[in-house]
Specification:
Elements: H1 3-10, E1 28-31, E2 34-40, E3 43-44, E4 47-48, H2 60-82, E5 88-99, H3 107-122, E6 129-135, E7 144-152
Parallel strand pairs: 5-6
Antiparallel strand pairs: 1-2, 2-7, 3-4, 5-7
């Protein structure tokens, strides 16, 4: 078992089979040594999880949990793209979108759910640049969506 796979197991994380796109796009694109992963929503074993709008009917913990699950799905897509997670050189950038009211201002705290997981799983290779943005709405009413750019060997 690889170091990263062992770390995922220690964290109690089983990577899901990546979901297929629901529109006219691909889940990831590899260009040279970069993998660009399309936005991932919080889909778990029972389907879509963590629906709601932060500042209205979803709280910060719900948002963080949604972003964390998005990050798990990002990792699953990276594994599908490169086969072996040990080939991951670095998480380059995450962009997180938070379904929020206009007066909600804790977008970075929500997206920390994804950022923190990347560092837990990949250590220093998981430290990345990031943007955290609010959105008036997200697909299926989910609380968060996260996309990523990854450097691979």
């Amino acid at each position: 078992m690889s170091t990263i796979e062992a770390r995922l197991a220690e964290l109690g994380i089983t990577l899901p089979t990546p979901t297929a796109p629901l529109a006219n796009y691909v889940p990831f694109v590899r260009s040279g040594n970069l993998v660009f992963v399309s936005g991932q929503i919080p889909v778990g074993p029972n389907g879509i999880e963590y629906v709601g709008k932060l500042g209205l009917d979803a709280d910060l913990d719900t948002g963080r949990a949604a972003a964390r699950l998005c990050a798990i799905n990002l990792i699953a897509q990276v594994k599908a793209a490169i086969g072996d997670l040990e080939k991951l050189v670095r998480v380059v950038k995450l962009t997180g979108f938070v379904n929020a009211t206009g007066d909600f201002t804790d977008h970075p705290k929500v997206i920390n759910g994804a950022s923190d997981l990347m560092v837990e799983v990949f250590g220093d290779r998981g430290r990345h640049s990031r943007s955290a943005l609010g959105a008036a709405g997200l697909p299926f009413g989910v609380a968060a969506e996260v996309e990523g750019i990854f450097e691979v060997a």
